[in-house]
Specification:
The structure holds two protein chains of two kinds. Chain A is built from 25 helices and six strands. Chain A is mainly alpha-helical. Chain A has three domains: 117 residues, abc type-2 transporter like fold (3-Layer(aba) Sandwich); 216 residues, no CATH class; 197 residues, no CATH class. Chain B is of the alpha/beta class. Chain B has two domains: 164 residues, P-loop containing nucleotide triphosphate hydrolases (Rossmann fold, 3-Layer(aba) Sandwich), CATH 3.40.50.300; 67 residues, no CATH class. Helices cover 40% and strands 26% of the residues of chain B. Chain B contains nine helices and ten strands. In chain B, the strands form two sheets. In chain B, strands 6-7-8-3-9-10 form a six-stranded mixed β-sheet, with helices on both faces. A four-stranded antiparallel β-sheet of chain B has the order 2-1-4-5. Chain B is globular, with a radius of gyration of 19 Å. The chains are: A mainly alpha, B alpha/beta. Chains A and B meet through helix 1 and helix 8 of A and helix 2, strand 6 and helix 3 of B.
Chain lengths: 674, 249
């Protein structure tokens, strides 16, 4: 790579962009005017609204059922309230009429005064105040009336006390004084930290996405890409030059955002005036946020650049950017949620880590080690995405992606076309939706029968129907072939090591992303034999999934996906298998298990082997959960629900021997095994 | 000097079958020679030219341009090459001068020579009056001149024109044709693709007819005429196309 060329490209792109009205508006002008408009507009609107409400005055109906001297006193006191109009000419009390008036907002409150006697003979005024909580004016009326009556109550009580000659000071037993110890910076941090990450992320990505889509997809659209491809610049120089352009503009955008935000806040707090007299905004924290934004900007720029490279035109690039934008917004919203504190697990999830860290910085209680982890992990992702961008830019299939992907051909002319990749993927998505809504509600009603119905009706039956309708040969598609019985034996040997390994992997994941106890318990319950009995549980959790899920994944889906290469098919099928379990915490172990099952299916060329392996795996989990205490060997391995880490070594050795055995029994290599 | 040996490009189609966009293309083009790739739309002309300009990688076979191999030295191939096609775009927000300067720098033209080169180009193509206007405000003919200047700013020994006149009006097209003649006079090696028979006849020293990725024949019009005994250009082309389809049958 030649730095000089990169600079040439970078300079030209910057010149080009600075002349683009869209860039100027979204990246420069919008942040500058947004915050002042947002804050100043908002605050003046608030105060004006309040003033308007004050001036407008409130109308209340008063229904005095008591009508004596002291109730008149109550009435009198109400008229002290500013801008109040009291209507008390009601002669007949009719609640529904007043409620209707309240609902159509011609009055703001209805006050009903009754009285009663307490058990010790004192008189109590029972005041009911009808008001509309959804109406600001009505709520305000209620507050004023309530404050007023509370004052009156004090007066009445002190009168009574005087009568029986008791000092009114007796009422002051507890005095509460409000003293907010949070320093003003922290208060601001608390408020700002909540929505700052969210706002910054949206503005940064939306600014960068406009530029990124223009830089490569835009060049494709305007047919200038070819001219630079044939120029003496190398492709990686082009990518880096463009990459730097996005980063620069994004940094400028963020800087402008922060500056404008800072000034607007200062303005607002100065307006708020006296109570925050000594107030100072934490300027250093804004600088730290800027530092934190840098790796995030570079990451987003790289992702957006990859999207732009892949897209054929700006419109397509923008539609691919949408999910990214939505995902980022969703993740950045964690700073709104209570109870989310930064920990090791969260500090590894992009955006979430950033959002939580930024909140902590604004609160002035961030931890340096997390800051380093966040910046470090983001930089690693950065390097990966930039590499992907460059690879994409080298791939002619991507760069000259002209052929429109064909729409789904459901029942093509050619029988083999029926079970193509797109169809199977679409089917998988529909199945997951059905599983979630239909299967979920079945299982909610009754766990065991729900599981049986899910396996048979949602997983097995549709696949068999599709095979039937498309007249595809089940035996060859699903690999229902005879195989050496020794394969079954070998697979059984692998069951325990695999279970332990995936258990350990689960433990590690649990270490990084702690899972709630309740969740683990629910999982445990699934494989616990209770009233159902051992054999029934094994049937529902072991045998049925063994058959139905294997037919679906290693039969139906693997068959469609293997056309792009067997390992590709095995791995993608396993990923779908992992996703199918609808559980992010088990995704990785289940996917790895899926790879093993796919490997078995292809290696032995028989679906019966993965069926047995799947069955053995699930059944073994049931047995260990229920009978672990009775077997001394297991007690050696699992202590207090933790699997000992030393088992990794023997487990891997056994697994290796099993694979070796399988290779001897089935000598054909995976890729030739067709 | 271009030497092409068994150049082949295979695309994978949606149905999984291979499409031979260019199949076993072999030819040479020397200094001061205009070689025309002649074929109908979809014959594989653009793919061949994209391979020669290193935008696409050949599936098999190779070519050398000025002695530099496509496969092992694409960087130097591009440095010795000017590429112009009829539908390439320009950066609308840059001026003509900025555009040409940008490409000059990418092609490593020394900074102190860039302005002289631009002035030479402006003389040659009569573009002084709009040099500092933004491309957005230029007419099609002016834009095409900027494109020409952009492609030749580094004075490359080889020029590749991919249907450069497609979609242009007669006057603009004429500019390009005369420019191609100028290239030939300057001793450049010119490769030109078109689907218009007359255009090929007017400028070609050598014609390579391709159809469905395969070379039908190569030589001059005179060769073809004596070979087929026909006089009409279209008839000659159809004759050669039929000859291979008959073979297939």
């Amino acid at each position: 790579m030649n730095l000089k060329k990169i600079i040439i490209i970078y300079k030209k792109e910057m010149l080009d962009l600075v002349r683009d009205r869209r860039t100027i508006i979204t990246s420069f002008i919008l942040p500058i005017i947004l915050y002042p408009l947002l804050m100043i507009g908002f605050s003046s609107m608030m105060s004006r609204q309040e003033m308007k409400l004050e001036q407008q005055g409130i109308v209340i109906y008063l229904n005095d059922m008591v009508h004596d001297e002291s109730s008149n006193e109550l009435k009198e006191s109400l008229s002290q309230i500013e801008n109040i109009q009291i209507i008390d000419e009601a002669i007949v009390y009719n609640e529904s009429t007043y409620l209707k008036l309240l609902q159509d907002k011609s009055i703001q409150a209805l006050i009903n005064i009754e009285d009663s006697l307490s058990s010790s003979g004192y008189r109590i005024f029972n005041i009911t105040c009808f008001y509309d909580e959804t109406s600001e004016k009505s709520s305000m009326a209620y507050n004023k009336v309530r404050d007023n009556f509370q004052e009156i109550e004090e007066v009445l009580i002190s009168k009574r006390l005087e009568k029986i000659k008791i000092n009114t000071e007796i009422l002051n037993a507890v005095e509460i004084k409000k003293e907010n110890i949070a320093p003003p910076e922290q208060m601001v941090g608390f408020i700002v930290g909540k929505f700052l990450p969210y706002l910054l992320i949206i503005l940064t990505i939306s600014g960068a996405s406009v530029i990124a889509s223009d830089l490569i997809a835009g060049e494709k659209e305007r047919r200038t890409l070819e001219t630079i491809l044939v120029s003496a610049a190398r492709r990686d120089e082009l990518v880096i030059g463009k990459y730097l352009t996005i980063i620069t503009i994004s940094i400028i955008t963020v800087l402008l955002n922060l500056l404008s935000m800072y000034l607007s806040f200062r303005h607002i707090f100065m307006q708020l005036g006296t109570s925050m007299g000594e107030f100072q905004l934490p300027l250093g924290n804004f600088a730290l946020i800027l530092l934190l934004m840098l790796p995030l900007i570079t990451l987003f720029s790289a992702i957006l650049l990859s999207i732009s490279t892949y897209s054929r035109n700006i419109k397509e690039a923008q539609s691919y950017q949408m999910p990214l934008l939505f995902g980022a917004i969703m993740l950045s919203m964690v700073s709104f949620l209570p109870g989310f504190e930064l920990n090791l697990g969260f500090s590894l999830i992009p955006i979430v880590n950033f959002s939580l860290m930024m909140r902590d910085i604004m609160l002035n209680n961030y931890q340096l080690n997390y800051l380093i982890i966040i910046i470090g992990s983001t930089l690693v992702l950065d390097v990966i995405t930039v590499y992907i961008s460059i690879r994409l830019f080298h791939s002619e299939k991507v760069l000259f992606r002209t052929v429109e992907e064909k729409s789904l051909k459901f029942w093509g002319k050619n029988k083999r076309d029926v079970l193509n990749l797109q169809f199977v993927m679409l089917y998988f998505v529909l199945m997951i939706i059905a599983l979630y809504y239909i299967g979920g509600s079945w299982q909610l009603k009754n766990m065991m029968s729900g599981l049986i119905k899910t396996q048979l009706v949602l997983i097995l039956l549709p696949v068999l129907l599709i095979m039937r309708i498309s007249k595809t040969d089940i035996k060859s598609t699903f690999r229902l072939n005879y195989t050496n019985p020794l394969n079954f034996l070998l697979v059984l040997f692998a069951a325990l090591p695999l279970l332990l390994l995936s258990g350990i992997l689960g433990q590690l994941i649990n270490f990084i992303f702690p899972v709630s106890e309740a969740y683990l318990e629910a999982l445990q319950n699934l494989v616990t034999v209770k009233e159902n009995g051992l054999w029934f549980t094994i049937f529902v959790v072991g045998i049925l999934p063994g058959i139905c899920e294997e037919v679906m994944f290693r039969g139906f889906i693997l068959n469609a996906l293997r056309k792009k290469g067997l390992w590709y098919g095995i791995i993608l099928t396993a990923v779908l298998f992992g996703a199918f379990h609808l559980d992010p915490f088990r995704f990785l172990p289940v996917t790895l298990l899926g790879i093993w099952l796919g490997y078995l299916a292809v290696k032995t060329n028989s679906l019966y082997v993965p069926i047995l392996a799947h069955f053995a795996q699930n059944s073994l989990a049931i047995l260990i959960t229920n009978y672990a205490e009775k077997v001394s060997f297991i007690k050696l391995i699992i202590r207090e629900d933790e699997i000992a880490y030393w088992v990794i070594i023997p487990a891997i050795i056994i697994l290796y021997l099993v694979i070796k055995g399988l290779t001897i029994l089935n000598p054909l290599a995976i890729n030739n095994n067709e | 000097m271009i030497t092409v040996n068994n150049l082949t490009k295979v695309f994978q189609q949606q149905n999984g079958e291979d499409l031979y966009a260019v199949n076993d293309l072999t030819f040479t083009a020397g200094k001061g020679e205009i070689v025309v790739l002649l074929g109908v739309n979809g014959a594989g002309k653009t793919t061949a030219m994209r391979m020669l300009s290193t935008v696409l990688q050949p599936t098999s076979g190779n070519a050398t341009l000025e002695g530099y191999s496509l496969k092992s030295d694409p960087q130097n191939v591009r440095a010795n090459l000017g590429f112009l096609s009829g539908d390439t775009g320009l950066y609308a927000r840059l001026t003509a001068r900025e555009t040409i300067t940008y490409f000059a720098r990418l092609y490593d033209v020394p900074e102190n020579k860039i302005n002289t080169r631009i002035n030479e180009m402006a003389d040659l193509l009569d573009m002084h009056e709009f040099l500092d206007k933004k491309i957005d405000f230029l007419s099609t003919g002016m834009k095409q001149k900027v494109s020409i200047a952009r492609s030749i700013i580094h004075d490359p020994p080889i020029m590749i024109f991919d249907e450069p006149t497609a979609g242009l009006d007669i006057l603009t097209a004429k500019n390009i044709i005369s420019f191609i003649h100028k290239c030939k006079e300057d001793g450049k090696c010119v490769l030109f693709s078109t689907h218009i028979m007359r255009e090929a006849e007017r400028i070609a020293d050598k014609i390579i007819m391709i159809h469905q990725g395969k070379v039908l024949t190569q030589g001059s019009w005179e060769d073809f005429k004596t070979d087929t005994g026909l006089h009409d250009l279209d008839d000659i082309f159809i004759h050669y196309v039929n000859s291979i389809t008959e073979e297939d049958v």
